[in-house]
Specification:
Four copies of one chain form a homotetramer. Chain A is built from seven helices and 20 strands. In chain A, the strands form seven sheets. A five-stranded antiparallel β-sheet of chain A has the order 1-2-3-7-4, covered by helices on one side. The first copy, chain A, has a five-stranded antiparallel β-sheet with strand order 9-8-10-16-11. Chain A has one domain: Chorismate synthase, AroC fold (4-Layer Sandwich). The first copy, chain A, is α+β, with helices and mostly antiparallel strands and about 375 residues long. Chains in contact: A-B, A-C, A-D, B-C, B-D, C-D. Chains A and B meet through strand 1, helix 2, helix 5, strand 11 and helix 6 of A and strand 1, helix 2, helix 5, strand 11 and helix 6 of B.
């Protein structure tokens, strides 16, 4: 079955293996005549790129993205954009012994069980390198969303046992951990370095917030916005859980506390995380995802080989001790793709309504500069 | 956009509003010539049904499901099964004043923002009543999965601040809270009754476990099994978070602890929750979902009306003080649907492989009685 | 696989067998807040209904359509519309002997080969009765299209060897053959009556024309408007071919003759049938489909039974001698569904463009009363 | 909307413009562990390639296909195959004056109307060059089908007014017109050369036959095999009509003549073209498509420019006088893709049936060497 495609109106198909010739993406359904900011796209690629600090993998990847179709004179044509990055600096020999072994925590065994034949080098399709295409497509989506006044930001809220106590979003790109809490950076860094010293890795939590999302996005009952976001975020390698707004804390809350009241200027609080009944409410979308500790660690572990015989394996190669850091731009990209797709989906049926139902109108929001749909009062 | 359809090979489309004429479902893609156990289907419907104890809503719903197509002489024909339940005992007058108001915590405002025109009575499509079709379809899926040796069980692991300390699955249907821990039932019940006394409601957590799932289900990279499950579970009303295996606890774990080792008889531990790289591993699938406290509570809350003027509202009508209890069969149904769909999806491409690749074979598992795919050693 | 769903944004799922409890449809993705003309819908149902004259089957079907969801106070809510017709006047005993036999020309053998188990009575899902849901959904689509100034008309252009020589569309509903050429009606009727006398049936050709279609509908390269229309029309029972504009005659034409020139007021001729490169051109969409002679004829024919033994069979029951006549409203419905879906699809991406690209504008067409998109000159 | 993807289980996404950097394709859902015959793939590419004789365009295209992903050690991995051909020998200057003009017969106007902004050089996405990806994917599909004993052949049955009188399939690749009738080749060639001399072009008809197709493929009622084939063939540039079996001739036939009788060894005749009720019957699939005369002709024609002002235009550049010839491998590719997809789709639900329904079995066909599904007698 074809599982490598994502989205309904804005549709993304990624291809390529970690140590194959290239990794890339086809983006279909993007509106025509859109002026692309190519530098901004490359900037997003760079944020995802390994080798930026000691806290992430030292694999050097140029990640210079090249666009092969769908753009003419720097504007989109409405036809598919294919973009890819050639693979370089691949040390496939690091992986030779893995051809016959399944690394604990990795997808080696499950890919073998499903496909029989696999490209074992560097995780193949299961590698984080697959996210190159997601980040490219997400960068397009961000530019489209910006036209509607929608912005997306992400940061790290937990590393190992250290949790952020505040959300200072402006500081996120100032620290190499992308922590939302500058006061926690030292402790987070210490936790990562301690783990690395012990040939180990740590997990983390990422939070992504989307602001300026108009009410009405999301398609109930199975195409709910939170369902789409959950699938998108869970499709990122190493993610083991997703929550919105109050999230798992809602279990211990009372309804009187959880229910967000409304005032004429919008919702007073945001336990609901910006979505009710799977439809955006106008409040910021708040999503959180947990990233497990990096599976690749240089410790001997028990496993089996392709003949189901017991073996031990330790992962060599260059790896992130805390993959949550590089996960931030990937999570932002997935949120951007879902929102852009939802926006276009909503346009499909809502746009038609303007012909027969004058109940809503477009309004210029002087605060944000964005055009917003509003209901007539 | 059409958001009311779920699934790829096994496809479910639900229809109907809480206080309309009927709620129902069309199931398409179910294999032909399957002998249905109609009593078992009705049993699942009854588990979902309100009015079973003081802890759930007192609305009486017959929930007698009727099948209109796709079955001939008690076997499926491979054509769409349409089944529905007529709505009775609707006290729509309870909702008259809500036509102009948005209840906090409900989807009233967001449906209004999206659609302009809505059936305000009892939540319309956003009502839990919509799950009638999910549970019917899930019951079909469970019967299909049973033929492959796959079983699904669900239970409540948290109510308010009370958490289950053990997992005694056999006791779940013996207590009206569906708690997996009989020792915690009294405290859970006390928490619910205290909330009700205070005109309030409580949240909870549901765990669903699928056993006997063969390795190899799930379609990377966007059609990952955990991504599909996350979307399915998040599409249930009131769910605010989903996690698998170690889930959010993975943030504070080390890789050396998180990575599950393999032995010739399978995985030694199950922090991964039965999926690696989005593909099932053969270990049990373990999913957890948080259900927010019921939004309908008889307390005055601030809100606005359709003219954006401030108002107050309290929800009358009959409602569950803890909707997690009735959520158990719904969550099981969604897991069953995803697994049955994944099984059929996997069959599509893997089945073809038997013609050119003799690397795998079918084997009869004497322990479980199920036929399983195995790789030749 | 689920083959009973049609459409991308406007999505139609039909269910039900000819002699089961009911036939019906779920329509999802229809815009909200649309005021339905229920009488106009029933009128379309009546046009499809058998028993209207001696030239069509005498089976009496009330075909009174009932809507079970998705409509509130006579306006759509944006949620799925489920509508169905209960089956009455079924003479299933006519079909008893067919349980073990395959009728030549019917889908009996192929359904048996695919599904193993089938509802043999009256053709099951392969019966023209399945089109009840298509015509209902098509009636909705027609009402939506009318808001955009798009109208659809269909008629019979060939019956047996008799071909229409003109296109007098206003006369179509005045003759019970739905011929576009009143002068040919007598000869067409004679051909049908001669066939019936000889216990035989005749084929025919239907033409459907859509006017007012704005340029720009259709999604290249696989979602071309003509590809979608071809699939839609070919999905109607008994159709063996589809063509657009010059159609098969184009083989014998020269490019200089085929190419339609453009003038400032539009295309000068319409050999292209309203689509170029799979995108609508603004010229009328012209589609033609051939309907084979009714398979059910009361003549003994050689066949086999389910044990592959030779047998003979003649079809009893009540059948149309020329099914093309009743095929007209069905073909119109399918064209309407494709166009409405294409319109909504186009809106998804084009609508977004208004935010960043002011090259086009909406204009009121004083001739037709419709609002049309125009490109700024 | 994303229209550049085709197929359900075997999914093909093409990208690239005629005069952009490259044209290519992503194929997803192809079974894993399949040993690819790369030379056979290139052979299909060469059949599609221009410049092979005086009767086709003289544009030289290497069409050397390169695979970037999804293959490891010459076997498929089950992950997406991306393959592309870089564009060379592009004389874009031939098209400079077309930036502001719409060529009659081309998609220039409609792309402009839809997208506002377009790559006008050489037809962009509407160029036959887009078919590179189709033919690559079709070559994969043919290799898969061959494992099931299914073969596909195509040929030209009409050029201008010259119709083939016989079907001598073995001779097709021996004549540069790919005519199925060697006796008609001279007349066909004369018709093309006469047209070219008159700066004109001619149309044609292609027939494609698939043999060895097992009964049971195709998904009623909207996913009918003939509906899928019709869409696939109509999506090829310049095609204006599609028919199966008797096709449009069925209009003038009687039911007694049209209905194909069955014998214990299969269907006695094949007016139905291998499909009944949209499901394959075991008889050969017979499809016919009409290709309009090439739109690019060096004659002055009336048109308008982007400002809707009258202009004249003649197409320079190098073009096929009869595009039907090169259309043969493209049509074969589309039929192969639909059949491979249908086979995999059918496997999804039918394969599951083996677990609970032993009514069918696999049998080795000694005549063809293929494995076939058979129903137990």
């Amino acid at each position: 079955m074809p599982g490598n495609t994502f989205g309904t109106v804005l549709r993304v198909t990624t291809f390529g293996e970690s140590h194959g010739r290239a990794v890339g993406v086809v983006v279909d359904g993007f509106p025509a005549d859109f002026p692309l900011d190519l530098a901004a796209i490359q900037h997003e690629m760079d944020r995802r790129r390994p080798g930026q600090s000691k806290l992430v993998t030292q694999r050097k990847e140029g990640d210079k993205i090249e666009i092969f179709s769908g753009v003419f004179e720097d504007r989109t044509t409405g036809t598919p954009l294919m973009a890819m990055v050639s693979n370089t600096d691949m040390r496939s020999r690091d992986y030779d012994e893995l051809a016959q072994l399944f690394r604990p925590g990795h997808a080696d065994f499950t890919y073998f069980a499903k496909y029989g034949h696999r490209d074992h080098r560097g995780g193949g399709r299961a590698s984080v390198r697959e996210s190159v295409g997601r980040v490219f497509a997400g960068a397009l989506a961000k530019q489209l969303l910006a036209q509607f006044g929608i912005t997306i930001k992400g940061g790290v809220t937990q590393v190992g046992t250290v949790c952020a106590q505040t959300r200072l979003w402006d500081t996120v790109e100032d620290n190499e951990l992308r922590s939302v809490d500058p006061a926690s950076v030292a402790a987070m860094r210490a936790e990562i370095e301690q783990a690395r010293k012990e040939r180990d890795s740590v997990g983390g939590v990422i939070e992504v917030v989307a602001e300026g999302v108009p009410p009405g996005l999301g398609e109930p009952v199975f195409g709910k916005l939170d369902a789409e976001l959950a699938a998108a975020l869970m499709s990122i390698p190493a993610v083991k859980g997703v929550e919105f707004g109050a999230g798992f804390a809602a279990a211990a809350m009372r309804g009187s506390q959880m229910n967000d009241e409304l005032s004429p200027t919008g919702f007073v609080s945001n336990n609901h995380g910006g979505m009710l009944g799977g439809i955006s409410s106008g409040a910021p979308i708040v999503a959180r995802l947990v990233v497990k500790p990096t599976s690749s660690i240089p410790q001997d572990k028990n496993t089996i080989d392709v003949n189901f015989q017991p073996r031990t394996v330790a992962t060599r190669g260059r790896h992130d001790p805390c993959v949550a850091i590089r996960g931030v731009p990937i999570a932002e990209a997935m949120v951007a793709l879902v929102l852009a797709d939802s926006l276009l989906q909503d346009t499909a049926t809502r746009g038609a309504r303007e012909y027969f139902s004058p109940r809503e109108y477009l309004d210029y929001d002087s605060a944000t500069g964005a055009r917003r749909r509003r209901l007539r009062s």
